[in-house]
Design brief:
The complex is a heterodimer of chains A (112) and B (111). Chain A is globular and about 35 Å long. With 112 residues, chain A is mainly β. Chain A starts with a strand and ends with a strand. Helices cover 0% and strands 48% of the residues of chain A. The radius of gyration of chain B is 13 Å and the shape is globular. Classes of the chains: A mainly beta (112), B mainly beta (111). At the A-B interface, strand 5 and strand 10 of A face strand 5 and strand 10 of B.
Chain lengths: 112, 111
């Protein structure tokens, strides 16, 4: 079934550790996005990529990095995790920017 | 930055009742999106609106693009238990690059 796959589904991580959240889509969408969802704050954009080889910063990029080496994959890296990064992380993709986005099922990350 | 407000924040309704919720923006939009998020899953697109005054239906759901272009409305008729979830509105950011999301309306349906 075509869609977006996120891994892992959930993770508990010690503060200071490095962590990469994976996101893969098989819809050949050009645009991809990473959001975090926190209670009462809705979905906030971390980083985005309008096309392979390009990335941009969203509303809350600090402490996160991304890469877009090809169309399908858009990993999100926490170089040194901190407790405030405890959240649910969603990856999304769209045919192009300004088009409706399709979301994965999320990664639940707890930083202790 | 651009902000979206959704009302109500949460609502409890009886099965079979109709539901209305709205979303307002601090600026004019040319697109409105409505998503639903089931517990433990990612948001799923329900309806997309592209023109002021547009009224679009998807089954029991109907959404409208407000005439002022600063608001949108979502109605659910004859609610059922599977309508439970969080409903998000979204619109383009100030640069037209990405979408900003409202804080959501949490819907609970009582049997």
């Amino acid at each position: 079934i075509a869609g977006i796959t996120q891994a892992p589904t959930s993770q508990i991580l010690a503060a200071g550790r490095r962590m990469t959240l994976r996101c893969t889509q098989d819809m050949r969408h050009n645009a991809m996005y990473w959001y975090r969802q926190d209670l009462g704050l809705g979905l906030r954009l971390i980083h985005y990529s309008n096309t392979a080889g390009t990335t941009g910063k969203g509303e809350v990029p600090d402490g996160y990095s991304v890469s877009r080496a090809n169309t399908d994959d858009f990993p999100l890296t926490l170089a040194s995790a901190v407790p405030s990064q405890t959240s649910v992380y969603f990856c999304a993709s769209a045919r192009s920017r300004n088009q409706p986005q399709h979301f994965g099922d999320g990664t639940r990350l707890s930083i202790l | 930055g651009q902000q979206l407000n959704q009302s109500p924040q949460s609502m409890f309704i009886q099965e079979g009742e109709d539901v209305s919720m709205n979303c307002t923006s601090s600026s004019i939009f040319n697109t409105w999106l409505w998503y639903k998020q089931d517990p433990g899953e990612g948001p799923v697109l329900l309806i997309a609106l592209y023109k002021a005054g547009e009224l679009t239906s998807n089954g029991r759901l109907t959404a409208q693009f407000g005439i002022t272009r600063k608001d949108s409305f979502l109605n659910i008729s004859a609610s059922i238990p599977s309508d439970v979830g969080i409903y998000f509105c979204a619109g383009p950011d100030n640069y037209g690059q990405n979408f900003v999301f409202g804080p959501g309306t949490r819907l609970s349906v009582l049997p």
